[in-house]
């Protein structure tokens, strides 16, 4: 265990003890109940308006087939940075054949520490199309523009929007806040240079999956605090929203494929420098004290036993409480990375469709908030 692993684990243990003491002290019927929902397992939530779903199961034939392929590739349970990188090289093999699209262009744009590679997807030759700025997943240590080529072509085609995919700097080669700096710089560049890519600067959204969902949420916070750029939507696909692993679900072993507590510590120890604070909202958006005036949000969560689901539920509630139109959508039979697996999983296809529909609705000014549960989907093959 390295120094940052020890620091994260030590803080988690201290926080467990502290929470137990606080709950004991505040165990009265009124004050204690205010805290209860923040620490319980997702399936134990107390009628907070979230539609509950049964845990995903490897018995689902599509999921089982994908898990078998992942097992053969040796990526079923990544436990190191190299394992995560190997997994994100394999996932595109599950994405299906990339759709034809009108135009794809690779560019370099200026960043704080040098040029940032981006890839711009255009569904047609129209000028003034709305723009999604997308940040890939990979635990801040993995992921490439090529890995996300297939799903982003599909999103651009279905939404009829530009998609700008951002290759931010990865850890451990560059630590926080490098990825955050690149994500914000790219979004700001898009807003200031929308005409250079035939986009509309008044209709810009951010999105991402996993670590990229974290970056999208952080960019939304930064844009609000710096009053630029103006964003109209955030699409957060199974986002990492809290650097802590304090929720009880992180301590529960499960047979369902999910991000484990150990691998989360590994990637965060690679991403965060020793001086980083786990409570920093730019590290853990869930720790932000106020979420008012953020753009409307769509959160995608998967599996009843996924510990990251609790983060999405809690973030959705905080957004709603602070007046942000929010939709949270559950995919009970999905597994981590399913946005990249539309060639094998009907849930991956549905996720792409839902993200595109949410973006299209937001770009047309018709955002509302709701809670959605997707029943198991079987696609014809």
What is the topology?
Layout: H1 3-25, H2 31-36, H3 61-73, H4 81-90, E1 103-111, E2 114-122, E3 129-135, H5 149-159, E4 162-166, H6 178-192, E5 199-209, H7 211-226, E6 233-237, H8 261-271, E7 297-302, H9 307-321, E8 326-331, H10 346-363, E9 370-373
Parallel strand pairs: 3-4, 3-5, 5-6, 6-7, 7-8, 8-9
Antiparallel strand pairs: 1-2, 2-4
Helix pairs in contact: 1-8, 5-10, 6-7
Structure description:
The chain has 381 residues and is of the alpha/beta class. The chain has one domain (37-373): 3-Layer(aba) Sandwich (Rossmann fold), CATH 3.40.50.1820. The protein is 36% helix and 16% strand. It contains ten helices and nine strands. The chain has helices at 3-25, 31-36, 61-73, 81-90, 149-159, 178-192, 211-226, 261-271, 307-321, 346-363; strands at 103-111, 114-122, 129-135, 162-166, 199-209, 233-237, 297-302, 326-331, 370-373. The chain has a nine-stranded mixed sheet, with helices on both faces. Strand 7 (297-302), helix 9 and strand 8 form a beta-alpha-beta unit. The longest helix has 23 residues, at 3-25. It is globular. The model is unreliable at 13-56 and 376-381 (pLDDT under 50).
pLDDT average, as an integer? Answer: 83
Order of helices and strands: HHHHEEEHEHEHEHEHEHE
Q: What is the makeup of the main sheet?
A: 9 strands, mixed
The rounded distance between the terminal residues' Cα atoms is: 45 Å
Using the coordinates shown, work out and report the CATH topology. Rossmann fold
Poorly predicted sequence stretches spanning 5 or more consecutive residues = 13-56, 376-381
How many separate domains? 1
Structural class: alpha/beta
Name given to the CATH architecture: 3-Layer(aba) Sandwich
Helix content: 25-40%
Give the number of helices.
10
Q: Nearest-angstrom radius of gyration?
A: 20 Å
Query: What is the CATH level 1 assignment?
Result: Alpha Beta
User: Quick one: how many beta strands?
Assistant: 9
Strand order in the largest sheet? 1-2-4-3-5-6-7-8-9
By CATH, the superfamily comes out as Alpha/Beta hydrolase fold, catalytic domain
Instruction: Please tell me what the overall shape is.
Output: globular
Q: Tell me what portion of residues adopts beta-strand conformation.
A: 15-25%
